[in-house]
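Title: [Solved] Rap-GAP domain-containing protein 3D structure

Original question kept below for reference.
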Amino acid sequence: MTLIQFDFCRTEYEFLREGEKLKRELKHLYNLKCLETHKIAVIYIGEDQYDKMNILSNETGSYLYDDFVSRLGTLVKLKEHKGFAGGLLRNGQNGIVAPYYCTPSLLQVIFHVSTLLQPSSEFFQKMKHIGNDEVHIVWCECKMEYSSEIIPTKFGEVTIVIYPLYNALFSIQIIKKTKTCMFGPLCDGAVVDGLILPDLIRLTAINAGRALREMRNFYQNLLASIFSI
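Solution (posted by the thread starter after getting help):
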């Protein structure tokens, strides 16, 4: 968290003026969430899979994909999880486990992994969670280049596609609905070593979510709210 430093050498201070405006601002500040939370979709596409139904019906993935998912965060049991769950129910209806990532700076991330969500018979519920996420991570083992039209969603603004190559290398494709949305560290066309792939993908996805929020007129972070009073 950012600390506000005060100049204790000053001899004069300007006090806040009491009034209805101050009360409203303080009430608004009190109701603000101090946590930075993100929910990010993760989708597995196997060989020769080209349509939404087949893709979201996958309940398992390849070894490389499973290894990648396990290193995105800590696999937590939703029934016992006390942190941010991103809308996932804790009664097992949405799955048993999910990758969860957090930092001491109050950042919490939950991943809606298509192969870990409820069985394929509950296709609508699976699509509901993934479709409401703004950032998608797609692991693509299909021979064709991925297009966001394969799984069209209203809220999916950024898609980070991973293509396995040879020698433990992976090619990255980044699809953005809004071209002016800038983030990193990964960029479109990057080639990444598998050892650092989960960390870089996670950071890029988080920064994509941050960039999308910053583009909204109504978005205001906690520190900006304090200085606006």
